[in-house]
Amino acid sequence: MPIYKIADLNIEINPKYEKTSEQLATYITDEKTADFCVEAEQSEIDRLVADGGIDYLSESCIINTLVCREILDNYDGLFFHSSALMFDGKAYLFSAPSGTGKSTHTALWQRHFGGRVQMINDDKPIIRKKGGDFYVYGTPWMGKSNIGANISAPLGAVFLLERDRVNYAEKVSAGKVFPKLLEATLISKKQDRMSKILELYDEIFSAVDLYSLHCTISDDAVTAAYDAICK
C-alpha cells in the first residue's frame, strides 16, 4: 500500500477509489516504513452510501476519522476545524462555525499582505506537538474550497471569529470559550480520547495566545488581528 506523510507521520493508506487517491496524491512519500496504517472498510463505505453518501467522499471521511483518532491517541495531535495560514513563518488559525466567514477572513489576509501569506489548510489542519512545541500541518482534507498545501509552521496564535459591527481582538482563556473550542475539534465520545483533547488544549493555550476576534468582513478585521499578534 502507498505511504503518505501527513503531520510528519508516515501513514499507510490503501484508497479504493481513484478520486480518493487523487486527493491524497500530494502527500505521498518514498518512505518504506509506516508509523501506522488505516483503511476504510468497504462495509462502512457501503453503509454511508446507503444513507445518501458518495462512495469516494464516504471513503475519504472514514480515512480522515481513522487518521484523526490515531494521531490523537498516540502522536499528541488533533484536527482543528479552522482556516489556517502561514504569515511570516508562523501559523495562525481562524475558527468559526461554517458560514461565519473564516475563509473570507483568511482570503483578506492574502489580499492585504500578499506573498507574506500562504494558506496551510482551509478546513482541517492538524495541530501536533513535536519536541515540546506545537506545529500546524496541512492535510489532504481541505473542505469545499480545496485550498491548502503540504506545508507546516509553528503555531503562533488561534482566533475564534465572531461576527460583529466593530473590529477588535480580545485575548481570552480557553475556559471562557471552551464550547467553541470543542465545536472546532473532531470529538470522540470515548472518555480517554476526550481527556486527551482536554490535555492538549491545556498545553496549547498555555503556549500560545487565544483570541476572540470580533469582526466585520473587511480589511479592518485583518488589522485588528494583526495588531493583536504584534503586541
Strand content: 25-35%
Major β-sheet profile: 9 strands, mixed
- Rg calc: 18 Å
The helix-and-strand class reads alpha+beta
Shape: globular
The unreliable regions are: none
Q: Roughly how many Å apart are the termini?
A: 48 Å
Helicity level: 25-40%
Let me know the average pLDDT: 93
Beta strand count: 12
Q: What is the ordering of alpha helices and beta strands?
A: EEHEHHEEEHEEEEEHHEH
Q: Can you count the helices?
A: 7
Organism: Ruminococcus bromii
Protein name: SynChlorMet cassette protein ScmC
What does this structure look like?
With 231 residues, the chain is an alpha+beta fold. Helices cover 36% and strands 28% of the residues. The strands form 2 sheets. Strands 4, 5, 6, 7, 8, 9, 10, 11 and 12 form a 9-stranded mixed sheet that branches. It has a 3-stranded mixed sheet with strand order 1-2-3, covered by helices on one side. Strand 1 (3-6) and strand 2 form a beta hairpin.
Task: Annotate the secondary structure layout.
Blueprint: E1 3-6, E2 9-13, H1 18-24, E3 36-38, H2 42-50, H3 55-74, E4 77-79, E5 83-87, E6 90-95, H4 102-113, E7 117-121, E8 126-130, E9 133-137, E10 152-163, E11 168-171, H5 178-183, H6 191-207, E12 209-215, H7 219-230
Parallel strand pairs: 2-3, 6-10, 10-12
Antiparallel strand pairs: 1-2, 4-8, 5-6, 5-7, 8-9, 9-10, 11-12
